[in-house]
Amino acid sequence: MPPLDPRVLFASGATVRAVAVGSRARFLAMNRLIDARRLRPVIDRVFSFDDAPAAYRHYASGEAFGKAVIAVKGG
Q: Which of 5, 7, 44, 50 has the highest count of CB atoms within 10 angstroms of its CB?
């Protein structure tokens, strides 16, 4: 792969942002802990797919204690 030409990137109008992530080893360790402790997410409310806009409004309101879930049938 050729090196990135910063002039091409600048001319494209792209936005460059750094993304910090942990190592694969830490990710696997986290998943082992989640499994061992049987941790589950807290679900505040479940919305139907047709009611997705209300789910976004509910979550954005800051009143949700946990996750606002949008259920998709079939899947």
A: 44
Q: What letter represents residue 60's amino acid? A: A
d(CA 4, CA 25): 29
Using the structure block, give the residue that is written with the tokens 């750094």: 18
3-state secondary structure of 68: strand
- Cα dist from 47 to 24, 42, 44, 72, whole Å: 33, 15, 10, 9
Would you give the distance in Å from CA 47 to the centre of its chain?
A: 18
Tens digit of each residue's pLDDT (9 = 90 or more) over 8-58: 888 888 888 888 889 999 999 999 999 999 999 999 999 999 999 999 999
Tokens of 6: 């910063």
Burial of 52 per CB tally in 10 Å (0-12, 13-18, 19+): middle
CA distances from 38 to 26, 32, 43, 57 (A): 18, 10, 15, 30
